[in-house]
Backbone:
């Protein structure tokens, strides 16, 4: 059996999964704001220091 | 020159604080200083580190100190209209925040839950400057609004999303899904098509071909649906839009591909076509997003500065309400420096009003009990009690804006370049197909001829053109936005390129729109003392002349002096005692103990760059014309000083007259500031709003210029002309590629492989051409 007989269906399934994930996230509104997430990415998620820790 | 630590404004007179932290850093004003202290007090000093590291998205402005009245936010009738409640009892409101510029702002706002009690979550949309704040059931919106205002982001509540907005949102998401499917399809189809081109045989070839059909069909049906819809629509209106040849190519490709698969021929054009669908959808999506971005959210009520309005209750006390909840007959209190939110009648109080938003006049108008007042005017120094006649959309201002929006439908449309081209293009392709058919019907036989004609229709798809045009406009619109020129749509760029006459408003456009001091002469006091006296006497003045005087002497670095018995009365100027001497400033004269010691004159000064701008406009081949509602003498004076001849100005023009003069021709440009020019701005081919209140101006105009000054207008014209040059160049380039394909078809050398090579090549070429621009464009963007 050629290896492509395994790889091809695998690739198709994987592709379908990704497309499905994209469609779900688009419908879920995750792409409504394209500007802010790329800025938010740059922030560290540290909790605030309390006044006495400064 | 040092910069304010908070807002980066260049400093002339730095302000320093008293405590350890603020003593070492310079600030431009007390507002910025206060925010700095507040941030450190809450442990939010990291704000400044982030600000240092990252760039800013928008220009910063110094913090304005403003009265903060947010109690109305927790009123139940208000919450019903504005808040969304969830099953677990939490509520959320969207707030439009002023002053959001950068990453540090994002950080600060989204950290709200950590320093404001009751807040569960805060999410900021940087593009729209809208923060969605979710509150626990016991939380109070007034608290978090106050926090935000304290930190320099005055919040304004935004109405809950209505049905229209929801529909728009669904549509955007649907478009995105279509793009995703098209992209996935294009990639996969190409993969399997390439294997066939590379020489796959037999069973593999058939299977791969089947796969290309499997992926290609969703791309050419689901994803391509908007093209079919648009083509159908335009055909119904007897117009040959560019979507017609595109849809034709796609449909032909679909049918042919399916047919070939059915009869066992492993040949189709799905790879080129699905890539085409993907790229076209993508470019249109971005263009649409870009055009929406320039506008403030349409759900912001124009009166957003006045939500916390003080209304008198039956018992004489005042309560805070949102402007939406005002009724006719209510009596509201308008404090000094506030803008009137309603049309009404003054019940009590004496003051001056700044009506420049409505009339264009910078000079203050005196107002007293019994007189009518209008929304949009600014109260200057006295407190007024006003009985409400109409509010929001029903005010004179609201109706002007509404008529502008309605009148937009009557704005003269242009036949865009794209539309012109697509008409000729489609007809040529049909003609070519007919010629080919006639010539070869008998020679090749009907089947082969039809097949070739179909292929012809496919490869002459104007993909490069359809791609290039939005791309060029996207580039221009986004670069312009970075420069502070907010252009509403691509059509505006085309109109600007064809503009012939430029109408300029006087007040605020050619002049500064504010009172400015033209000369200050001392008749006995030392210059130093004079500036000190003026600085301190006018320190809390809200009168335009007072603030103008203060601005005038600011650069001379006056020192702080104590003023006793300071009095400012409308009509009587300002007076006070400084170091034992009684000074009075009134009617362009300054008195010390009754003796005149200085005089000055003030006027609405012409902008320095105005004469040069007129010259440049003429150099570009445009005809400038000055329009104003002011009296003849003043307008003539200004016209002459900026270099206009007698035919080129018109005075005493009412807003309706202005609109008529500007008239509904598409090659006119009107430059004005906001509301008082709104009707003319809406009627002109292109309306350019120069500074002024952004939300009002954008409703009325096609272009909003953030920096005051007239050189933006000449820049806009040049940018538009150069952009159209690039568009035309792209047309030539794409036609070349189309011609090559046609030759390949006619000589019988066309195959899907060749088409698959030509299409990306053509797209890449026009993309590079759009990015490269022209020499002038590159210089303009520097």
Residues:
């Amino acid at each position: 059996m050629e290896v492509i007989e395994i790889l091809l269906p695998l690739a198709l399934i994987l592709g379908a999964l990704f497309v499905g994930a994209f469609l779900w996230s688009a419908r879920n509104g995750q792409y409504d704001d394209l500007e802010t997430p790329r800025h938010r990415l740059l922030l560290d998620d540290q909790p605030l220091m309390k006044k006495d820790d400064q | 020159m040092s910069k304010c630590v908070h807002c980066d404004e260049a400093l002339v007179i730095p302000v320093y604080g008293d405590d350890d932290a603020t003593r070492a850093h310079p600030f431009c004003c007390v507002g910025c200083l206060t925010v700095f202290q507040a941030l450190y007090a809450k442990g939010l000093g990291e704000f400044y580190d982030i600000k240092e590291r990252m760039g800013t998205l928008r220009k910063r402005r110094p913090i304005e100190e403003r009265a903060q009245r947010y109690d109305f936010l927790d009123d139940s009738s208000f919450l019903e209209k504005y808040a969304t409640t969830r099953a677990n009892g939490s509520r959320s409101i969207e707030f439009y925040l002023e002053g959001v510029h950068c990453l540090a702002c994002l950080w600060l706002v989204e950290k709200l839950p950590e320093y404001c009690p009751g807040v569960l979550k805060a999410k900021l949309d940087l593009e729209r400057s809208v923060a969605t704040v979710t509150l626990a059931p016991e939380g109070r919106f007034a608290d978090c609004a106050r926090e935000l205002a304290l930190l320099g982001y005055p919040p304004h509540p935004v109405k809950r999303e209505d049905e229209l907005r929801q529909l728009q949102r669904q549509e955007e998401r649907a478009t995105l899904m279509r793009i995703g499917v098209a992209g996935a399809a294009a990639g996969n189809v190409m993969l399997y098509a390439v294997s066939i081109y590379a020489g796959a045989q037999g069973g593999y070839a058939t299977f791969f071909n089947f796969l290309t059909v499997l992926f290609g069909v969703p791309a050419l049906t689901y994803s391509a649906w908007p093209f079919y819809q648009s083509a159908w629509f335009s055909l119904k209106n007897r117009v040959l839009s560019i979507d017609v040849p595109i849809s034709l190519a796609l449909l032909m490709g679909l049918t042919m591909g399916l047919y070939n698969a059915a009869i066992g021929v492993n040949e189709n054009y799905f790879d080129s076509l699905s890539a085409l669908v993907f790229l076209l959808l993508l470019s249109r999506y971005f263009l649409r997003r870009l055009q929406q971005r320039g506008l403030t959210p349409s759900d912001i009520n124009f009166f957003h500065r006045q939500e916390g309005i003080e209304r008198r209750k039956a018992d004489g006390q005042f309560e805070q309400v949102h402007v939406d909840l005002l009724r006719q007959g209510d009596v509201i209190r308008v404090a000094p420096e506030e803008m009137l939110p309603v049309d009404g009648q003054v019940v009590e109080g004496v003051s001056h009003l700044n009506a420049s938003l409505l009339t264009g006049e910078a000079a203050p108008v005196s107002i007293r009990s019994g007189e009518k007042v209008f929304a949009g005017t600014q109260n200057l120094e006295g407190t007024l009690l006003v009985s409400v006649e109409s509010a929001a959309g029903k005010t004179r201002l609201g109706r002007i804006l509404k008529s502008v929006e309605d009148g937009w439908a009557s704005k003269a449309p242009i036949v865009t370049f794209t539309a012109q081209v697509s008409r000729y293009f489609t007809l040529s392709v049909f003609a070519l197909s007919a010629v080919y058919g006639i010539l070869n019907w008998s020679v090749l036989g009907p089947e082969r001829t039809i097949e070739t004609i179909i292929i012809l229709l496919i490869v002459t798809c104007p993909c490069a053109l359809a791609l290039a045009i939005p791309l060029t406009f996207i580039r221009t619109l986004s670069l312009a936005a970075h420069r502070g020129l907010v252009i509403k749509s691509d059509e505006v760029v085309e109109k600007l390129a064809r503009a012939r006459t430029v109408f300029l408003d006087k007040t605020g456009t050619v002049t500064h729109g504010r009172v400015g001091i033209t000369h200050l002469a001392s008749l006995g006091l030392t210059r130093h003392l004079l500036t000190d006296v003026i600085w301190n006497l006018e320190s809390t003045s809200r009168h335009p002349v007072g603030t103008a005087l203060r601005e005038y002497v600011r650069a001379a670095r006056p020192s702080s002096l104590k003023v006793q018995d300071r009095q400012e009365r409308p009509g009587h100027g300002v007076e006070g005692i400084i170091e034992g001497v009684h000074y009075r400033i009134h009617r362009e004269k300054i008195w010390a103990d009754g003796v005149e010691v200085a005089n000055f004159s003030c006027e609405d000064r012409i902008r320095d760059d105005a004469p040069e701008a007129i010259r440049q406009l003429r150099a570009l081949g445009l005809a400038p014309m000055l329009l104003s509602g002011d009296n003849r003498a003043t307008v003539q004076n200004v016209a002459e000083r900026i270099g206009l001849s007698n035919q080129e100005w018109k005075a005493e023009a009412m807003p309706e007259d202005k609109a008529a003069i500007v008239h509904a021709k598409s090659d006119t440009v009107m430059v004005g500031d906001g509301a008082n020019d709104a009707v003319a701005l809406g009627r002109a081919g292109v309306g350019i709003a120069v500074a002024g209140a952004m939300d009002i101006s954008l409703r009325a105009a096609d272009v909003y210029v953030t920096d005051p000054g007239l050189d933006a207008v000449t820049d806009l014209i040049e940018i538009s002309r150069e952009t159209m040059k690039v568009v035309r160049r792209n047309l030539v380039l794409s036609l070349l590629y189309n011609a090559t394909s046609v030759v390949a078809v006619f000589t019988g050398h066309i195959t899907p492989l060749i088409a698959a090579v030509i299409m990306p090549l053509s797209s890449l070429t026009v993309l590079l051409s759009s990015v490269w621009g022209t020499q002038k464009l590159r210089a303009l963007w520097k």
